[in-house]
Design a protein that fits this description.
This protein is of the alpha/beta class and 341 residues long. The protein has one domain: NADP-dependent oxidoreductase domain (TIM Barrel, Alpha-Beta Barrel). The strands form two sheets. Strands 3-4-5-6-7-8-9-10 form an eight-stranded parallel barrel, surrounded by four helices. A two-stranded antiparallel sheet has the order 1-2. Helix 1 packs across helix 2 and helix 1 packs parallel to helix 12. It is globular.
């Protein structure tokens, strides 16, 4: 890539009160690791380059995405950017807990999952994989409220920030207890939280997002498309290959029930005369970014065509209050897919 990214194609917001500016649509790097089916690295680079050309300046990845493969693909692409372009791009990665149940159980001790020595060693590995001296954002990949009253892992990250290894500290909410980060935000222990907020999962609107706005905590929204369920591409009988993460996520009758609810969302878009402008994926992404506290919505993008479609959603008009109210009815109290029904 030799040209600078197109200017003003995507709006930007600060990632929290004191954060750096991020595009309202971010690049989710999970699929680059190969766990969403076969993924060629050259196609990943093409998607990343198209995203940057389109104004995306925020990329989210993790070591678990292909055992470091996603991080390395991103680092290789960034190394080939002109310096003036590279300095505008922000990359977030994560430190997972050491071996044990996912998410951590109430009985897990932070000493066993996020010891200081373990965190430091893992952060050094993140720095090597991303070929940088300082991580823009380091997120603990999951958490348990059992550690809220003795949040030593976050204090370790504070020391690493003082040492210049990390710019911002974050936590990715555990799926079954996203509100566990509310206390941490109020205590000023995190700069950023990464949460699930979509047409089906709307619980963060009750407290988490208002507290983020109150405390100036940056908010990254993930799973805006419900791992593909909200794209409308998959019928009730669709089955994913065994090497695709979604074969488990939509196990049993979950795909059938998801497809039926997606039809109801499509009907609402028709009723409000929005279907002509909003595809189902665009409507889902737009909803995930509709709360004032949200800084960016990260979406998986495996090829340039997906980049074009996802970025275009940012240019669509905001939902009217009436349409937004109607879409709120699609909240689905289904428990947590990973272990619930």
């Amino acid at each position: 890539m030799s040209a600078a990214p197109l200017k003003n194609l995507l709006p930007q917001k600060k990632l929290g009160r004191d954060g750096f500016p991020v595009s309202v649509i971010g690049f989710g790097g999970w699929a680059l690791g190969g766990q969403w089916g076969v993924q060629d690295d050259s196609q990943s680079v093409a998607a990343l380059e198209k995203a940057i050309e389109s104004g995306v300046n925020f990329i989210d990845t993790a070591p678990g995405y292909g055992d470091g493969r996603s991080e390395n693909v991103i680092a290789t692409m960034l190394a080939n950017l002109p310096p003036a372009v590279r300095e505008t791009i922000h990359v977030a990665t994560k430190t997972p807990p050491s071996a044990g149940p996912w998410p951590p159980s109430p009985y897990c001790r932070w000493q066993d999952r996020y010891s200081a020595a373990y965190i430091r060693a893992n952060v050094e590995e993140r720095l090597r994989n991303l070929r940088t001296d300082c991580l823009d954002l380091l997120q603990l990949h999951t958490w348990t409220r059992a550690w809220n009253d003795d949040p030593q892992p976050l204090l370790v990250l504070q020391k690493l920030r003082e040492e210049g290894k990390i710019r911002k500290i974050g936590i990715c909410t555990p799926e079954q207890d996203q509100n566990c980060v509310v206390q941490l935000m109020r205590d000023g222990l995190v700069d950023v939280v990464q949460v699930i907020f979509n047409l089906f999962e709307q619980e963060p609107a009750a407290q988490l997002l208002p507290v983020a706005a109150e405390t100036g905590t940056g908010v990254i929204v993930r799973v805006s498309l419900d791992e593909g369920g909200l794209t409308g591409k998959y019928g009730a009988d669709h089955q994913f290959p065994a090497d695709d993460f979604r074969s488990t996520y939509f196990g049993g009758d979950r795909m059938q029930r998801t497809a039926a609810r997606v039809k109801e969302i499509a009907a609402d878009l028709e009723e409000f005369e929005l279907a002509e402008d909003y595809s189902l994926p665009a409507a889902a992404i737009k909803f995930s970014g509709s709360h004032e506290a949200v800084s960016t919505v990260i979406v998986g993008m495996r090829d340039p065509q997906q980049v074009i479609a996802n970025v275009a959603s940012a240019g669509l008009p905001n939902f009217t209050p009436q349409a937004l109210q109607r879409l709120r009815r699609h909240q689905w109290l289904r428990g947590v897919w990973y272990g619930g029904q």
